[in-house]
Design goal:
Elements (H helix, E strand, L loop, with lengths): L1 E6 L3 H13 L2 E7 L7 H18 L2 E4 L18 H10 L6
């Protein structure tokens, strides 16, 4: 049986992929690495659900534990956009240095 490395963002997204690959005689090996998911509660929920799901279906899963978000930043067509600043200030603690 062939093996295929499958990057997985969350358990629900992987269900059809894993089933389809197995139907074709390919055994997926799951790989979790998603340091860009925010907030942390969402990151943890996706990771933990995937770990439980993989165990339940016998999927070999490698988890690379790295939550790298330390803040956020973006621009609005390279211009100051006050409405976005107000949203950011309302939702996040912003430290100005």
């Amino acid at each position: 049986m062939q093996t295929l490395l499958l990057h997985i963002c969350c358990a629900p997204c992987s269900v059809h992929c894993v089933e389809s690959l197995r139907d074709e005689g390919i055994e997926p090996a799951g790989f979790w690495y998603n340091p860009n998911i925010h907030p942390y509660q969402e990151y943890k929920a996706r990771r933990d659900t995937l770990v439980d799901y993989a165990a339940a279906i016998g999927l070999d899963l490698t988890v690379r534990e790295e939550y790298g978000l330390r803040g956020c930043g973006y621009w609005q067509i390279m211009q100051w956009f006050r409405a976005n600043w107000l949203l950011l200030r309302d939702r996040f603690y912003i430290r100005k240095e």
